[in-house]
Design brief:
about 190 residues; alpha+beta; 2 domains; about 25% helix; about 30% strand; elongated
Length: about 190
């Protein structure tokens, strides 16, 4: 998980560096502030994404020559509250006109299948089919990570971490890095 975070931060820094010109002449905090001004991340406290589409299930194909089985996503909604480090994700899946082939993942789906997940700090839970909460605390770190890799969340976390800037130089060059425990409860600065 830590390698995924490092890779994401490196790629995001590169993209932000190319998007905000002239990045080479600015320090990292100025770059993040420019990105914040462009996106308005510091003004966003809460955001909701909604949509519809299809879901395919990796590795659940009937044979290696078949496509992954898919179902229709009748509705999808994710609400993120950055201040409380909380998120709620809701989706409704239906079989649709997709052939019910594949192994597992509850195929075929009869009627509507609802899924609701939550995270708040170090705690995560799902609602089962009867609407009862089921603890999923082993998922809290990943769900927090997804909050902080959203466009606004990434900038917010990086700006919050800017108090921990470290500059190092080697052979006349300088490098700036961000160390942060703000990304997720499980990531600690070292």
């Amino acid at each position: 998980m830590r390698n995924v975070l490092v890779t994401f931060v490196a790629v995001s820094a590169l993209v932000l560096g190319l998007a905000v010109v002239p990045a080479a002449a600015q320090n990292a905090r100025a770059l993040l502030q420019a990105a914040d001004t462009a996106v308005g991340a510091s003004k966003v406290n809460r955001i909701q994404y909604t949509g519809t589409g299809r879901i395919s299930y990796l590795g659940q194909n009937f044979t290696t020559a078949d496509d992954w089985p898919r179902v229709d996503m009748k509705s999808y909604s994710q609400t993120i509250d950055y201040g409380s480090k909380a998120a709620k994700e809701e989706m409704v899946r239906v079989q649709g006109n997709n052939p019910p082939r594949g192994g597992g993942a509850g195929f075929p789906i009869n009627g509507e299948q609802r899924g609701t997940t939550f995270v708040n700090g170090n705690y995560a839970w799902n609602l089962n089919a009867q609407g009862q909460p089921q603890a999923q605390n082993d998922q809290a770190e990943m769900r927090q990570f997804m909050i902080w890799v959203s466009p606004h969340g990434f900038i917010k976390a990086a700006l919050a971490a800017s108090r921990q800037w470290a500059s190092t130089g080697r052979r006349g060059s300088s490098m700036r890095r961000i160390c942060s425990s703000a990304w997720s409860p499980g990531f600690q600065a070292r």
